[in-house]
């Protein structure tokens, strides 16, 4: 069975790029265009990896992570994708419960390689 991923980003073009890149590797992918939608999908699905944009409407990626972790869902692997590339932003995301952190802009090839490594852990 193919690993199941959630890609949550309010920028449709970037979301499409990520989905197209990862679908080529055979992953099953759901999409969310805001934090509220991402949170609801996480509640009703078992994802192998969630890729969350930091800044989204409804709920930020950080708020989604905090809610998911506060509910005890430690097994959900979460990667934060963000243009907020300062070290303090990464520290804040990791303290909230993000397992991985990638700064935008990133190479789709690099992202695919990182996802493959994460899913093989």
UniProtKB/TrEMBL annotation:
Name of this chain's protein: CheY-like chemotaxis protein
Boundaries of every Response regulatory domain copy: 4-119
Gene3D superfamilies: 3.40.50.2300
Stored PROSITE patterns: RESPONSE_REGULATORY
Keywords per UniProt: Phosphoprotein, Two-component regulatory system
PTM sites of type 4-aspartylphosphate: 53
Keyword Phosphoprotein recorded: yes
CDD domains listed in its UniProt record: REC_hyHK_CKI1_RcsC-like (cd17546)
Xref: SMART domains: REC (SM00448)
Entries under InterPro entries matching the protein: Bact_response_regulator, CheY-like_superfamily, Sig_transdc_resp-reg_receiver
């Amino acid at each position: 069975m193919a690993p199941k991923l959630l890609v949550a980003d309010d920028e449709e073009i970037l979301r499409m790029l990520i989905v197209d890149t990862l679908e080529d590797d055979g992953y099953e992918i759901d999409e969310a265009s805001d934090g509220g939608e991402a949170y609801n999908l996480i509640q009703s699905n078992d994802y192998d990896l969630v890729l969350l944009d930091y800044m989204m409407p409804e709920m930020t990626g950080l708020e989604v992570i905090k809610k998911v972790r506060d509910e005890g869902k430690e097994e959900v692997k979460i990667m934060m994708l963000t243009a907020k590339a300062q070290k303090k932003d990464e520290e804040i995301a990791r303290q909230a419960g993000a397992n991985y952190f990638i700064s935008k802009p990133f190479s789709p090839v690099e992202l695919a390689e990182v996802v493959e490594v994460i899913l093989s852990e």
